Amino acid sequence: MPARILDGTALAAEIRATIKQQVEHLKAACGITPGLATVLVGDDPASHAYVRSKRKACTEVGMESFAHELPATATQEEVVALVTRLNADPRVHGVLVQLPLPHGLDAEGVLGAVSLDKDVDGFHPLNIGRLCMKGREPLFVPCTPLGVIVLLEKAGAPLRGARAVVIGRSNIVGLPVAMLLLHRDCTVTICHSRTENLPAVCRSADILVAAVGRAEMVRGDWVKPGAFVIDVGINRVADATRQTGYRLVGDVAFDEVKEVAAALTPVPGGVGPMTIAMLLHNTLEAAKRYASRGGSAP
Ligand code: NDP
User: Fold this and answer.
1) Which residue's alpha carbon is at the smallest distance from atom 36 of ligand 1?
2) Which atom belonging to ligand 1 lies closest to the Cα atom of 194?
3) What is the pLDDT of residue 1?
4) 295 falls in which pLDDT band (50, 70, 90)?
5) Which of 131, 148, 237, 261 could be cross-linked to 3 through a Cys-Cys bond (beta carbons 3.0 to 4.6 Å apart)?
């Protein structure tokens, strides 16, 4: 039987509708409008496109979004000064620094300057550290990894005791996804570019998460029958039939894997929309916490 296709677009739409209601409630109850500040350094077109879609998503649920752009020549001090100013701005409940930062800037230094209370991307070293410790809770969980977990949980994937394999160990996706699965009692294997016999390791997985950035690398015969497969990858492949000249594919060979897996996310329309929904979720949480600490509308 072909895999159930896990529709991230539909689930994200449901989540955004709930968030919109909660934003209205927060505004009515205490006059606070959740606000997200985006910090974009340089002129990378993909980063500009990501920030535009995050800002649009904010507006659609009734949040404020404050766009800040700096040139690629900005110094570390200038970027940190902007972040520090946003940390002190009572209209701003979340500060998102779009990655990657231009060459020459120290990303960890910038991310470490974001106030812990406003770290809605969950990339502050302290939040990542807490995520990697047993019995500690980060204030925020990174958005894409959280989206992966919500998709799995909504799909009813049995996580406790399951064998999970995560391909990719980046700080942004692979590592935090692995930690979240571990906290849900999966037995986790993390794979990377030096892993030997990757197909065999993948075939042991009840839960397989691919976060590599290699088009359609995971083939049908890498997947255990009945596995839950989450495809985080976003890759452009040339396609002369498209106006753009390319189409997007994931790290998973969709047509092959859907014949084997129990459930599978598509690309696009799987993890991508969930990432933005989780950013809105984290921003709402930040605003609610601000309100519960007695914070008032500016
Ligand atoms: P990185 O390039 O930072 O990490 C890629 C990881 O894959 C590394 O750990 C690398 O290993 C590993 N890897 C590379 N080649 C192989 C290979 N042949 N076999 C096994 N492992 C390999 O990428 P990101 O984590 O930032 O992103 C991964 C993918 O997810 C990309 O396609 C990106 O576009 C997508 N993405 C999607 C998002 C969404 O919202 N849907 C959000 C963020 C990312 P090593 O550590 O040894 O180098």
Assistant:
1) 233
2) 47
3) 82
4) confident
5) 261
278 lines ligand 1 (CB under 6 A): no
Do 204 and 150 belong to one domain?
yes
Considering the candidates 22, 54, 118, 288, report the single residue annotated as catalytic.
54
Let me know whether 150 and 243 are in one domain: yes
The count of other CB atoms within 10 Å of the CB of residue 207 is 26
**Structural domain of 153:** 143-272
Same domain, 111 and 147: no
The predicted pLDDT at position 294 comes to: 86
**Do 153 and 264 reside in the same domain of the chain?**
yes
Q: Whose CA is nearest to atom 34 of ligand 1?
A: 234
pLDDT in tens, 99-158: 999 999 999 999 999 999 999 999 999 999 999 999 999 999 999 999 999 999 999 999
What is the tally of structural domains in the chain?
Answer: 2
Dihedral, CA of residue 125, residue 127, residue 132 and residue 133, to nearest 10: 120
| 54 among known catalytic residues | yes
Whether residue 134 lies in the annotated active site: no
SS3 label, residue 188: strand
121 is known as an active-site residue: yes
The Cα 48–Cα 56 span in angstroms is: 12
Residue nearest to atom 42 of ligand 1 (CA): 144
Query: Do residue 156 and residue 260 come from a single domain?
Result: yes
Give the pair of three-digit tokens for residue 2: 């072909």
Give me ligand 1 centre to Cα 148, in Å: 14
Same domain, 179 and 112: no
Residue 298 pLDDT exceeds 90: no
Q: How far apart are CA 113 and CA 294, in angstroms?
A: 24
pLDDT of residue 296: 80
pLDDT of residue 207: 98
State the Cα–Cα distance between residues 37 and 63, nearest whole angstrom.
11
Catalytic residue, candidates 119, 121, 231, 251: 121
Residue at 18 is within a domain:
no
Query: pLDDT at position 184, please?
Result: 97
109 and 194 housed in the same domain: no
Query: In this predicted model, what pLDDT tens digit does every residue of 33-70 receive, in sequence order?
Result: 999 999 999 999 999 999 999 999 999 999 999 999 99
